[in-house]
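Limitations

Structures in this collection are predictions, not experimental determinations, and the ligand pose is part of the prediction. Treat each record accordingly. The example that follows, with pyridoxal-5'-phosphate as the small molecule, is included so readers can see exactly what is and is not provided: the inputs are given verbatim, and the output is the predicted complex.
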Amino acid sequence: MFRPLLTVEEGPGPLAGRIGQGLALEIRRGRLRPGERLPGSRRLAESLGVHRNTVLAALRGLEAEGWLRTEPGRGTFVVDDLPDVAPAPFAPPGAAVVPGYALPPALPDLAWSSTGPTLLPLLGGLPDVSAAPADALVRAWRRALRRGPGVLGYGDPRGVRALREELAAMLRALRGLPIDADHVLVTRGAQLGLYLAARALLRPGDVVGVEALGYRPAWAALAATGARLVPLPVDADGLVVDALPAGLRAIYLTPHHQYPTTVTLPAARRLALLQHATAHGVALIEDDYDHEFHYEGRPVLPLASADAGGVVLHCGTLSKVFAPGLRLGYVVAPPPVIEAMARWRTVIDRQGDALGETAIAELLGDGELPRHIRRMRRIYQERRGILVEAVRRALPFADFTVPAGGMALWCRLPPEVDADAWAARALARGVAVQAGSRFLFSGEPCPALRLGFAALPGPKLEEAVARLAACAPPLG
Ligand SMILES: Cc1ncc(COP(=O)(O)O)c(C=O)c1O
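Predicted complex:
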């Protein structure tokens, strides 16, 4: 319980009466709410610097006027029914934020989805957080706290050294990146990494190429620097690289599992892109958000693993392998770029969550994270099969390629289908899906659905597809 900010007005009249008026004013303003318990009379007296009997007299007066009620042994409460009290809202709707000031109209327009308990999420980027190893997390946090006060103080804006070392070792082993801790910045999720990469690289007016079918939150982070985004074509193999426009400062892309289509950029395109970027001084912002979930053949190494020219910024995240709520991502880049991003970070975030970073370093160090990834990969591969079968059965007109990796099916639909309307009907039936327009740079209607298979166990996936089929558009 916090002490109310009580003051006693100077003025005529007995002190108890003025204290009572002060309390009544707090109730009328809504700072003391109906049903709220007041601090004890001794504490009130102390904070006001008056005798306790004076406070007791004030409380008795307010009780007599019907503002307060006393429950023996429990305390004094604001009464529950105060019909004539309309607390002034903190910021009434429609009011200027600060008098004379209006928020600029061009705010980033990113809807954040939330999944209610009854909603079945067929959403592409959602992992199954119910499978996160809660006991191991608790143990790791406890061990991290015991490491001493260092984890609770101000620290390195690049992240806790132990985690940067563990991540560097993981990325050397799994993604072939020839790096050490000095190439790593730990961020709160990939989103902050993308934002900081944009801040470090871009100036207002710079031109940045993005996949015409792609990830809107990254575009918003890039555009926040004042850069101009131009859409680059994407085909069945991912980003088309043989007709890149001149004058690009950077390209943002998802080569491993193209977002949202999940295709892997072929080796020839990767080489051509790296050559182009090195020759023309174009930075490549590689978003490798779900690298670990590849089910077929050998894992393909990221662009950054073959980057001889120092042009790639490689962004990753533990959101998909562990849980988005942990907010743990990273950027791999040449040390001067890491340094620049760290400086920008100090402006908006100072540093990351040193305790959480230390705990995750423990999990990486003792092999828990790789074990969890192997387990989830098996589970997601099985769910991919279940969703594929369910969609084939219930939505035979949906055209898709079974993805070699990722967490979603990209379903192309007949051109006459209004995918947005279908997604809205599905939502009314308790199923969340994303329609193609959400991923198109132009925002135009796009007859496609992205169906995620990671978040739900088999029977729920089947139920979600059945509900989707029950509100499918009439075809043929
Ligand atoms: C393509 C892509 N990049 C980045 C992210 C960001 O992940 P986070 O900020 O949770 O680490 C996501 C999450 O959905 C994603 O789909």
